[in-house]
Amino acid sequence: MILNPYYMDIIDWADNMNQFFEIGTGTMMKLEDPDEWQEWAMNLVGDPDEVGRDAPVPYDFDDWREWGSLFFLTQDLVG
Question: How many Å apart are CA 19 and CA 15, to the nearest integer?
Fold first, then answer.
């Protein structure tokens, strides 16, 4: 399930999202540097068949929580 990122830090949230999405793809990149969250997020939403169809573009956001919250609201995925 997609977690609401509001009370998490980016590394923990990214690790949780990686675990969820690796089940289907096996190709998620680990986020090592919090300043590179947008690149990591583009990897997450890069496949429109899996996730990216309704996902917000990370580069349109300065704050990862704003992007993550909208991502959370736009996805209808269960795990």
Answer: 6
Helix (H, G, I), strand (E, B) or coil at 5: coil
Residue 38 lies in a domain: no
The structure tokens 């289907």 sit at: 24
CA dihedral 4, 6, 7, 13 (to 10 degrees): 60
Confidence of residue 72 (pLDDT cuts 50, 70, 90): confident
Q: How many domains does the chain have?
A: 1
Q: Which domain holds residue 56?
A: 1-22+52-79
Report pLDDT for 79: 46
pTM over 0.70: yes
Q: What are phi and psi of 16, to 5 degrees?
A: -65, -40
